[in-house]
Write a structure and sequence with these properties.
disordered N terminus; about 20% strand; alpha+beta; 8-stranded mixed beta sheet; 17 helices
Amino acid sequence: LILTGTIGVVHSFVVPTTQYSFHTPLKAEVRSRVPGKSSTSNTALNVQTTYDDSCDVLVLGSGPAGSAIASLLGANGKLDVVVADQNFDRDWVPNYGVWKDEWETVMDRFREFGVEFEGGNEGRSIDREWPVTDCYFGGSFDIPMEQRMRIDRPYFRVDRFALKKSLSKNFRVVRANHFSEAIGVNMYKPAGSLVHDEDGTTILLQKKGESSPITMRAKIVVDTTGHETKLTLKDTREFYTNPGFQIAYGATVEIDESNSPDLTMVGPYDKEAMTLFDYRTDHFSDQNDLIKATKAPTFMYAMPLRDNLVFFEETSLVARPAVSFQECKDRFFKRMDYLGIKVTKILEEEYCYIPMGGALPMRDQRILAVGGAAATVHPSTGYHLCRGLMGATDVAKAIKKELESDKPNIDRAAASGYHALWSPSNIRQRNFATFGGEFLMKQNVVGLRGFFDGFFRLPLEQWGGFLAGWPGLAYNESHETWLRRILFGVNFIVKLPPEVALDMAASIIQYSLKTTQLLQSVTPFFGEPYSYEYNRNMDRIGDVAAKQEARAMIEQSEVVEELPVMFDENDDSSIQGTKATITKAIVSPQVKEMAATMD
């Protein structure tokens, strides 16, 4: 009764586009690799199910993470992959900046799958390359205001149009969005809008302008809808910190160079260098504005593109609550005016909102999150593109291995995908960076100048590994073990100004009184973080050997009246409601004697 009642409840929620007949089976197997209606079959229950479309992998969202995982999974043609996004045809908005060596490691990994990054002015989906990177931390700790720190590490601006084109292959597109929301582990509202079973998932998708949703069937669903996803639950049972937010106002502009004394420069910025940080505040003439900028710092980020075309961005690195967009925009133009950079035309505007940190995905979810939905943004810096792309290759390997096997286990596929992203080792490394984000949020502009001036004075492999923070990216091997991280910390703290170093030491103590996560990341103690690896639930199976032994002994016992009736899973009558009688297995001599007396 419970079995048949549950099935009846689950399927009564599905909208009329799904039809049922109680004369043919329920269990779903994808039979069609082309769009259109598809049917499924099973010998267990007499139910006929029809879907509007079916696939092996359904990817929700078509940003870099979604397009990347879909391109990778569909690359060899063995899996039918669908990307569902009503906004698939819209251009990607952000201006992505990446370190050259990190981008090359990502390209090499994608090439292993047969996916090439093409196009762009520089090829490799790159719009512009700078041979060096500049920073300005003047105004504190006796650092002259005009002093420039030059970093001998090339930087790329990604051509977002070329990258999208490169990652828009190997999959089909359904221009529709999901409307489900997780209310518990593998439970969703509205009822019936998303249902899992042993062999996959049935989900309703809504196309714009159409009244009835379409019913999609997939073996596994991948969620790439961003950090604030409604499908992937975050694990708030373990210690976590609320997300911080990187906020930025950016603009691609044309500037007036008619009176420029040096056409190789844009104000103080070298056109042959990418300016990563300008934390100076000498452009504030109003004391109230200066106090506000000191407490809630922002920095200028400058990419000279070509001739008089430049992308500038005024950025709040990480704050909780977020700095307002209007504040960033006002500071942007104050800085432009002070530096004598005359903007004649704004070609593009960018409002950048990046949640950083927060809780990791909850374990045992069938929906597999990738990218921001899986909290893969660097919790200290906001870097994500290279991390997200590299993580997508790890997830793709795990999914392909399971789905291309003879007997795929969908629960194991999802768990393996999560484990590929968040192995205990990766979680330890993230916990280290999460503390970094918490420390940075405490700092005023003076503290940030001291922090980053010391940071970039470390050896490249140490600071580069911290910024990477993901296996496979350049220099990450310098941060992959607790010993490497503690060496980084010791080398770093001695390069900081004394007041910043003391603040960091105090913050380490305060943070460690709340949680052991930081200590776990820099020592061999305090155990391992919980794993996402698949573990079959044995509660329904128990100890088979013990039960078999008991049954054999019961068969040989002289005090046994009858053996328990075994539940026959192949007996259709039992599923249809026939009651199976299970008699008392063992009758003790005392019970026999009592029964005889009563008679």
